[in-house]
Amino acid sequence: MKNIVPTFINEYLDEKELTKLISIDNEGKLNYNLFKNLLDTPYLKKSYMEYEGFFVAENILRTELGFDNRSKPGDFDIVIIPFSKKVIHFNKTCAIEVKIVRPTRMKPSKNANSLGVSQTLGLIHDGFPFVGLLHVCMTEPLKENEKKRIKYIGGIGGEEAENDILIHEAPEHLMDDFSRWSSIKQMKRLLATDLPKYVGICTVGVNVTEKNSFSLAFDMSLNSPYTCGYFNPRRLEETQNKIKLFFNEYRHRFREAGK
């Protein structure tokens, strides 16, 4: 294992590896917070309740689905197909463009090489039923003296949690808030683009520890109507058929995830 230093951010995990790691959690369930803006929106609440799980594939070349290789994107970073007890819902397939942002302590506002707008517009043109854009902020771990000090009170809620004495006596914990801060910055950048409102957008921070493990940092305030997607008005039945044919022939390329 490599030590967690800036080279880890640049070399140890590439976009494909990181995308696969965060899509499904350790319990074999789809990472809800990453994809709720496409799968469990107010418009789709009833459908989501009926889903049993999801088929998930990463990095499918556009030529493998029968698309022209001269168009963007060159591959489909994440493809999610919901299924219920008796039906695989190809008509609700989600195609998601992923961009990795790698801010460092010296360059905290570093952006992705590309915001992924042109690739996302390409997904719309390709006719996928649902289209999303995900920015993953994999920041350099902060030094101990750079972390935020927070008070932690476990198992207490309501008025008791606001008791000054309890807060004063609560133990302090150091928190690396860099990735969450970066995810908020990226969301502001995405909201400023000209992406259609039916594109689901999400940003997430990745906190890497010295033990080579990671956790995801979400800012729940970013889950708003402005980030939720809905049916692509340019969806094509031809594209749904391509997805179905590919799935039937290459079922082994898809991982099954619970809800």
What do you see in this structure?
This protein starts with 5 loop residues before the first helix and ends with a strand. The strands form two sheets. A seven-stranded mixed sheet has the order 8-7-4-3-2-1-9, with helices on both faces. The chain is built from eight helices and nine strands. The chain has helices spanning 6-12, 15-23, 32-39, 45-50, 117-126, 164-169, 178-191, 237-249, and strands at residues 53-61, 75-83, 94-101, 130-138, 148-151, 172-175, 200-208, 214-217, 255-258. By secondary structure, the chain is α+β, with helices and mostly antiparallel strands. 28% of the residues lie in helices and 23% in strands. The protein has one domain.
Please give a quick description of this structure.
With 259 residues, this protein is an alpha+beta fold. The protein has helices at residues 6-12, 15-23, 32-39, 45-50, 117-126, 164-169, 178-191, 237-249; strands at residues 53-61, 75-83, 94-101, 130-138, 148-151, 172-175, 200-208, 214-217, 255-258.
